[in-house]
Amino acid sequence: MTPSNWSLWRRITALCAVVAGLLVLIAASATATAAANRSETEQVLDRLTPALVNAERLYSQLLRQQSSVRTFLVTGKDSDLDNYRDAQGQEAAILADTRQLLADEPKLLSTVDGIAVATARYRREVTEPLITQTRASGVNPETAAPTDQARAVYNDAAGRINALSGQIVTRRDEVAGQVRTTGNVLVLLLIFAAVVVVLAGVALALLLRRLVTRPVTDLAGEVRRVAGGDYEYQIRSFGPPELTALADDVDTMRRRINADLTDVLEARRLVEEANRMLEQQAAELTRSNRDLEQFAYVASHDLQEPLRKVASFCQLLQRRYSGQLDERADQYIGFAVDGAQRMQRLINDLLAFSRIGRLTSGFTEVDLNKVVSDAAAQFDAQREATGAEIIFTDLPVVRGEEPLLGALFSNLIGNAIKFRRPDVPPRIVIASTAGDGEFEISVEDNGIGIEPEFADKVFVIFQRLHAKETYPGTGIGLAIAKKIVEYHGGRIWIDPSPREGTLFRFTLPAAVPALEESPA
């Protein structure tokens, strides 16, 4: 494959590989140069310069030894030799440090060794004999005067120290020159790297312009021509293999669109027709639901009057003829009275269920502390009889219908008192937490609880988990509670986490949108 037939990816990869190779070589050279520069800089700063300072300090210690001995020769006091002994110790430490600093400099190290020999000779041939003679024969002014031999030995040691200083300065200047040279090389390498990067960027820009920008612009012009309605125009293929393949794919798509255009228009007509039918069905369903609600409401009202008559006359029979007929007759009358009363309760609960969301007084700001307090007051007699305890504090203010929220808490509190454990006073705790745009309310009791498998069943209308003889009721209370919560835009569920009792949780939006009118 010739370079002219290379794909765009292959060309960019080749360019990047060449640039990367050059940059790697430059980086390797720069790394080696920087390492050398750093080593030479450290040699100047960390070894040669401190060694030069040590040479000055050696000369100072030699002078201290000479001055201290001269003072002793004049006074004869041993205390005047303290500086002499301290200077020897300082000299030994400085020589050891200088040897360590110049460990990589054999020539300079040889000079240091020569200084050590010369200073030792000075003490051995000059200072120590004078100290011994003075201690033996006392102070003698003639002894204090330096001899030619003493001057020669001293000057030899001082000259060696000065020679070391000069050698160190020469070596430091030499290494400093190397530092400047490697620094200049490093700068040149960085400039070369920058030039390579700039040239690579220019080459990449030209490559993209020739192989991407211009072909894509031409292809876009042809696509716009087709998009303008000329579906018969054939899109040409040109440029690198990727763009050629793209042009062929676009032209294939054009042919397919042109072939399927009639089918699309027909499908659109069918969809519009289906939408019209769905709208008609939705309207009919809405009307049907409204008629069913009205029918249930009217039927429930129409059943109230005959049920009241049946219940009233059955109660009259029970009061008037109780004990006058046989035991079975009294039992039958009792069944009739109980059935009529249960039917009345069912109808009343059904009416209450159907009214939720249909008869509305509009949403207002509702303080749940007041709502719960009023709902709890309805059960004062049961609370006194069972020792029930209802605990709540700091409940939020929400938007809703106060009567419906009161019915919600009445149902939950009533259930908690009804389904209590024998010989255990009911304890009901109502709390709230703020969530993301809503409040979560919890109502927890210590009653008989609800098994997890029945957690959803209890919210279904007329569903009971216990016989009516054990726990009276119509089985619609929790269905009413669920409908009230959902009407307010929330949800209700049973939390299975408590070990005993039941924990209801439901949410009420913190800022409910305007729902002033009843939904259809």
What can you tell me about this protein's structure?
The structure is a single chain. The chain has about 525 residues and is an alpha+beta fold. The chain has helices at about 10-75, 80-100, 105-135, 140-145, 150-225, 240-320, 325-355, 370-375, 380-385, 400-420, 475-485, and strands spanning about 365, 390, 395-400, 425-435, 440-445, 490-495, 505-510. The strands form two sheets. Strands 2-4-5-7-6 form a five-stranded mixed beta sheet. Helix 1 runs antiparallel to helix 5 (about 150-225), helix 2 (about 80-100) packs antiparallel against helix 3 (about 105-135) and helix 3 (about 105-135) runs antiparallel to helix 5.
Structural class: alpha+beta
Rg measurement, Å: 54 Å
Which residue ranges are poorly predicted, with pLDDT under 50 across at least 5 consecutive positions? 512-520
Strand content: 5-15%
Q: In one word, what is the shape?
A: elongated
Give me the count of strands: 7
Largest sheet: 5 strands, mixed
Helix run count: 11
Helix content: 55-70%
